[in-house]
Amino acid sequence: MSLQEILDQMKADFEAEAPPEALEIMHRATRELQESDAMAHALRTGEQAPDFSLTDHVGREVASKALLARGPMVISFYRGVW
After folding, report:
1. What is the H or E stretch that residue 63 is in?
2. By C-alpha distance, which of 9, 18, 75 is closest to 42?
3. What value does the CA radius of gyration of the chain take, rounded to a whole number of Å?
């Protein structure tokens, strides 16, 4: 089974159990994101991100340049724990 097939099944399973009002909000937010053309500004596979700094989970500023000096870097964003 391909990754896309797995993701499609996970989405179908979630949508089968989620409350209709939650699905409406999620689908509306997805449409708004697609219509915003945000992807036109996103990095593509293989493109190099500019240097940046972000705050870590305990409030310290972390610079990408400093992390890359130690080795490869993985960036993970999450919406929240709600």
Report:
1. strand 61-63
2. 75
3. 17
Tell me: the pLDDT tens digits for 31-44? Answer: 998 899 888 888 88
Residues facing residue 61 across a β-bridge: 55
Q: Which residue has the tokens 């240097």?
A: 51
The pLDDT tens digits for 1-19 are 899 999 999 999 999 999 9
Amino acid identity of residue 78, one-letter, is Y
* Res 76: pLDDT: 77
Q: Position of tokens 């709600």?
A: 82
Sign for the pseudo-dihedral over CA of 22, 78, 34, 36? positive
Closest C-alpha among 37, 39, 68, 41 to residue 53: 68
Question: What secondary structure does DSSP assign to 2-51, as a single string?
Answer: -HHHHHHHHHHHHHHHS-HHHHHHHHHHHHHHHHTTGGGGSPPTTPPPPP
